[in-house]
Amino acid sequence: MDQRAYWNSEAGETWAKEAGRLDAMLAPIGDAAIAALRPLRGERVLDVGCGAGFTSRTLAALGAEVVGADVSAPLLKAARTAGGAPSYLEADAGADPLPGPFDALFSRFGVMFFADPTAAFAHLRGAMAPLGRMAFVCWRTMLENDWAREPLAAALPHLTTPPEALDPYAPGPFAFADPERTKQILVGAGWREVTLEPLSLPYRVGVDVEDALSLMLKIGPLGRLLREQPEAVPKAMPALRALIEQHAGPEGVTFTAAVWLVRGRA
Questions:
Q1: Can you list the pairs that 233-237 forms with residues at least 24 positions away whose Cβ atoms lie under 8 Å?
Q2: Model confidence over 209-238: pLDDT tens digits?
Q3: Cα 16 from Cα 140, distance rounded (Å)
Q4: What is the C-alpha radius of gyration for the chain, rounded to an integer number of angstroms?
Q5: For 120-132, what is each residue's pLDDT tens digit?
Q6: What is the tens place of the pLDDT at every residue in 130-170?
Q7: Cα(144)–Cα(174) distance, rounded to whole angstroms?
Q8: Domain locations in the chain?
């Protein structure tokens, strides 16, 4: 899949439109990576796959000088509209020229989409200052992430065409799920002191059943599949609603986010 084309199509427009809800949902995970990075006042930080700029603004509020990079024009438009101190660059951070050197590299789910991840991380390392550090979060396996696995399983019997088996290492949300492969990629790209720490965090996908259902139909693996088979949506709705009701509670609709917190040095 051409990631630049994908994120400048309906998918990018949807994420930009839903940026507030998505950022609220992902904030605890991004905060864990920011705490691990420990940006210092005045440091130059590259935010890879910055999207609508929430993490870039959070880093800048801590005193860092932030450049947010993303391939999606709709998301960058939302980032610039939100204002704040960061500057933004429409670029593939794994291949296009970068205005380094940077003291730190950060990403919240923005690094799993590179066609050649080893080359991309070598390129990123080349934009770092000596001893520059890195912290990012990426998804663990779909089996460990019930927010992705369970809705797909509920919708599967109602699809017109079953999804094709995917290459687990192809660019996509779960491309870095294998910790040994991910470490091999980073070490092969020249990064040192690479560690992967498993985190499991509550993942609130909506304030109530209707809120969660509306978002689930738009984003994530299920949203992508249903955009390709819209005729399956009404058939799958009862099963999806029943699933979401099982996860609903006083604090909203909550699943589990299983991620890797990855750290390293240039």
A1: 235/158, 236/154, 236/155, 236/158, 236/159, 237/213
A2: 999 999 998 888 888 888 888 999 999 999
A3: 25
A4: 18
A5: 999 999 999 999 9
A6: 999 999 999 999 999 999 999 999 999 998 888 877 788 89
A7: 11
A8: 3-141+168-203+257-265
> Token digits for 66?
């932030």
Q: Domain 3-141+168-203+257-265 falls in which CATH fold? A: Rossmann fold (3.40.50)
- Where helices occur in the chain by DSSP H, the ranges are 3-7, 10-17, 19-37, 54-61, 73-82, 117-126, 146-155, 179-188, 209-216, 220-228, 233-247
pTM greater than 0.90: yes
| Residues contacting residue 40 through CB under 8 Å, at least 6 positions apart | 63, 64, 103
CA distance 97 to 26: 28
Q: What does the DSSP assignment read for 171-226?
A: SSTTTT--HHHHHHHHHHTT-EEEEEEEEEEEEEEESSHHHHHHHHTTSHHHHHHH
Question: Residues for the chain: how many in total?
Answer: 266
